[in-house]
Amino acid sequence: MTDMGKAKGPFGGSSHSSASAEDVWAVWTNAAEWPGDVIVMAKIDGPFAVGAKITMRVKGHPPLRLTVTRVEAPMLWTGVARVPGLTETIDHLIEPTDSGTLITQRTVFTGPLASIAARALGGTVRKTFEATTAHFGRLAERRASH
Q: Count of alpha carbons within 13 Å of 50, Cβ hemisphere only?
């Protein structure tokens, strides 16, 4: 028996921000604000809601197309990316702290290619998510200061 169909992960990364959960949410749900720093491009096909399609690209990675599958404002949204043999489910979490927020992205790979994806990408996911969550935190801090 192989474990090729079992879920692999979660893999994740986090950053702290002095911004409020509401300011982080406002940035993280507005793809037009994302480009800059590690985010090369981002677009959404309509309002941010379940069913919306987001296309984005992080430096050093191919474009990723996510479908928003879950929204629990202002603390969580989930996006799912699918390619033949692989599904990547990415949770975007905002947790209030005494000094602002903890911003976390975590992903789970499922499907016949999950083991391969986990071995190939698992190690880079943490660094990528640490960079992207820090970017979203900085954007939210700038938003709050205006």
A: 6
Q: What is the CATH number of the domain that holds 66?
A: 3.30.530.20
Q: Which residues make Cβ contacts (< 8 Å) with residue 95, sequence separation at least 6?
A: 21, 75, 101, 102, 104
Mean pLDDT by 10 residues, the chain (146 residues): 65 96 96 96 97 96 96 97 96 97 97 92 90 97 84
- Quote the domain boundaries for residue 71: 8-145
Half-sphere exposure of 146 (CA within 13 A, CB side): 7
Establish if 3 belongs to a structural domain: no
Q: State yes or no: cis peptide before 47, omega within 30 of 0.
A: no
